[in-house]
Structure formats: structure tokens, C-alpha cells
Amino acid sequence: MKKIDLHIHTTFSDGTLTPEEVVKLAKENGLSAISITDHDGIRGVAIAEKIGKELGIEVVPGVEISAKRENRSVHILGYFIDLHNQKLNDFFQYMRDERMKKAEKMVIKLREHNIDIKMEDVLVYSGNGGIGRPHIAEVLIAKGVVRNFKDAFYRYLGDGKSCYVSKANVPTKSVIELINNAGGIAVLAHPSSGNVEEFIPEFVKEGIKGLEAYYPKYSKAKIQEYLDLTDKYNLVPTGGSDCHGDRGECIKIGEFWVEYDVLERLKRKASIDT
């Protein structure tokens, strides 16, 4: 049985593993195919593809884009996207700029709470990646302000907390169209997160083609519920670990996987719709 993982993050967003390390671990742990799905950017994909060819690991071009629906956070996965699509790359530059602005605002709020933190500190942890809350949390942990990631988000960085700053307000329809116009397949990521399940029929009308039905935190009953929805709306059920490397309590590469048939169905969908 060929095992795959279609949801992995690297140091090019908020993961702790480089694309090279991800592919090597995938090989060591018996995976046949993976997808690099960094937040709002694709700079790690080509690197992973190169190493994948050397090691015999299939690397599916992917991304995870943040969007909004009625002020709720929605994450849209895009598979088989054209890495050279100009509109897509222009959008990712915009999102990198917005992430930087958001981080700067959060740092200001933390300083207003008498916490000694500077943007220079955060940039040490974000490196080449799109800057995010986990990088700020790492600074707070290193400085002894909080005990761990859970503590950082509970006290300061979580949605609605005192130092939280909302993301750029990009409509789901715009994100789905962007992915589809770049030759990709748009998939709703972890639909239980953010209380967005009720919008699935509307996402289908906007052009979503898949739903992440297999996810480490889901019970068998929840998985079956999503599989029923994929049958109802003719969506491809996808799945992945959402691995972020060694950060927090993240699932490690190889600990969660789905069968290769999932990728075959995704490929058939891409062939039919493009």
C-alpha cells in the first residue's frame, strides 16, 4: 500500500523543517508522495521537487491560503498550481507584506503589555518563511514570558486575545478563483476549524473541488460525515497530517497518512476540470 501526506509545512512558512528535510523524512518513513502546502507561498515547492526526484518521492505542488468568510478564518489548499503563474505570485507577495504588517502590530501590542520584544527578534525565527504567530510565540518562549505555544496563544496571541491582530480580509471566492485560474484544484482545509462547515455548499458554488476529510484530529464519525459530504457535492476527499515539524504537539511526518488512491482521485479531478 502506497502512503501519502498532502498537507505539510516547511520553514518557508511556519514549519521547523526545511523542504529538503521534509522529503528525506518522507522517504525514511515510507511515504510515496507528499505535498508542500506552506501558508500563502510556494517558495519551498521547487526545492522539494528537486530532492523528491533524487529520492523517488513524488512532490505535489501545493499551498495553503488564508481567506475570510463572514469574518471567520478559512484555509484553502491549492494543488497542482502553476508555480510560475504571475497573478498567483503577485498575490503571495501581497500576503507576505500583509503578514509583516500584522506581525509589527502584534509586537507593538506586546510592548504595550511591557514585554521586551522587537521585530528583529521575530525575524530570527521566521527566517525565509512567511512570518506568523508561531514565530512570535517562539520569541515569547525564549524570553521566558510564556511556558509554551499553548500558553502564548491562550494569554496573548490567540483569536480575540489582547495582542491578536486579524489577517488580511481576502474573500474565499477570490482565493478559490485564484487557485483555479492558476491551473490548480481548490480544496477546503480542515473544515472543522474556524466553524466554517455551514459554508461548504457556498464554497462548492464558488468553485471548491475537494474537502480535507482525513485529518489527525478527526474521529471516524467525523471522517465519515465529511466523506458523505464529498459524495453529495462531487468533491475529492483529501487528507494530510498538517505537519509543522517539531513545533508544539504537531503530528510528525509518517505518523499520519492516507492511501495513494486519494491522490489518484485528485489527479483525475484536475484532468477533468482543466
Kindly name the structural category: alpha/beta
DSSP E strands, number: 8
By CATH, the superfamily of the largest domain comes out as: Metal-dependent hydrolases
Taken together, the total number of domains comes to 2
Strand order of the largest sheet: 7-6-5-4-3-2-1-8
Helix content: 40-55%
What is the fold named in CATH at topology level of the largest domain?
TIM Barrel
> If helices are DSSP runs of H or I spanning 4 or more residues, what is the number of helices?
10
Shape: globular
Task: List descriptors.
274 residues; alpha/beta; TIM Barrel; eight-stranded mixed sheet; 10 helices; globular
Can you tell me about this structure?
- The protein has about 270 residues and is an alpha/beta fold.
- It folds into 2 domains: about 5-85 and about 170-274, Metal-dependent hydrolases (TIM Barrel, Alpha-Beta Barrel); about 90-155, DNA polymerase, domain 1 (Orthogonal Bundle), CATH 1.10.150.650.
- Helix content is about 45%, strand content about 15%.
- The protein contains 10 helices and 8 strands.
- Strand 1 (about 5-10), helix 1 and strand 2 (about 30-35) form a beta-alpha-beta unit.
- Helix 5 (about 135-140) crosses helix 6 (about 150-155).
- The two termini are about 30 Å apart.
